[in-house]
Amino acid sequence: MASVVRHLACIQGDRNMADVAVQHGVAEAYEASLFGTYSKKIGMWLFLLSDSLTFGALLFAYSYGRISNPDWPTPFHRESILNATVMTGCLLSSSLTMVLGVLAARRGDRSWTRNWILLTMLFGSGFIVLHAQEWTKLIAEGMTPFKNPWAANVPQFGGTFFTLTGMHMLHVTIGVIYLGVVALRKKWLPVLLAIWLAVWLLTPADNVFHTGVHVILLGTVIAAVILFLKPKDYDAHDVEIAGLYWHFVDLVWMFIFPLVYLMSTRITG
Questions:
Q1: Domain ranges of the chain
Q2: Each residue of 76-109: pLDDT tens digit?
Q3: Least packed by Cβ within 10 Å: which of 65, 88, 141, 205?
Q4: Quick check: 80 and 160 in contact, CB under 8 A?
C-alpha cells in the first residue's frame, strides 16, 4: 500500500510528500494543490482579501465623515491616547510572538510553539481589556452610536467610531479564540472553555459587555463541540494560517490608531 501511495504522489510531481505520507503511515492518495500551496492557506487569503474590503469601506466612511464635517469631535485626551498607545504596543508585541510561534512550529518544537501562541493570546487579551475600558469610559461620558456630548450636530461620529473599532475588537476576540483552539485543542480545550466561562460569570449583568461575552462564549462552545467530534492536533500549517489572520488584524489597527485616535486628539491648555 505504501508503494501505491508513493507512486500516486510521484505521478503528480510531489515525491517528498509521498515519502512523508509513507513515513507516517498515511495510506491515502495525495492530491497536489492547483496553486502549489495548501487549500487552507488559499482559503484564508481569500477571506482576508474580502475582509480587507470590509475594513476599507469602514475606514473610508469614517474618513469621509471626518473630512466633510468641520465640527467633527475630538474626544480623546492624553489619557485616551496613552491607553491607545499601550494597546498598539500589545498588538505589535503579539505580532512578534506570533512570528516566533510559527518559526517554532516549522522546527517541530511543539512546546515552544504552544508557549508563543499563549503569549500572543495574552497580548491580544490585554488589548481587548484596554479597549473595553476605553469604550466603557466613552459610554459613561454620554457617547452612543447615535449621539455624542462633544458635537451634537455630528451624530454619526458615535456610529462610525463604534462600528469601526467594534468590528476590529470583534476580530481580535475571534483571533484570540482561534489561537486558543489551535494551541489547546484536543488536550487543553476544556481549560480554555473554563476560562471563558469564568470571564462571563464574573462580568456583572449590568455591564455593557455582558451580552457580548456571552455570545463569544457560545461561539467557543460551538467550536469546541465541532473539534471534539473530530479531534486533531495542530501542525505547522495550522499555526501559519492562524498567523496570517492575526497579522492582518494587527495591520488593520495600524490604520485605525492614527486615523481615529491621533487625528482626534483633544488639545487642552
A1: 1-32, 38-185+233-264
A2: 888 888 999 999 999 999 999 999 999 999 998 8
A3: 205
A4: no
C-alpha cell, 219: 461561539
pLDDT band at 29 (very low <50, low <70, confident <90, very high): very low
Phi/psi at 144 (5° precision): -135, 175
Distance CA 120, CA 216 (A): 19
Cell of 213: 461575552
Nearest Cα neighbor of 244 from 186, 179, 192 is 179
Q: Decide: helix, strand or coil at residue 265.
A: strand
CA distance 218 to 214: 6
- Is the pLDDT score of 68 beyond 80? yes
From residue 99, alpha-carbon distances to 6, 13, 27, 157 in Å are 33, 30, 33, 36
| pLDDT (tens digit per residue) in 245-265 | 999 999 999 999 999 888 877
Collect all residues with Cβ–Cβ distance below 8 Å to 203 and sequence separation of at least 6.
209, 210, 213
Give the DSSP H or E segment for 78: helix 78-107
Q: What is the pTM of this model?
A: 0.73
38-185+233-264 CATH pick, 1.20.120.80, 3.40.50.720, 3.40.50.2300, 2.40.128.20: 1.20.120.80
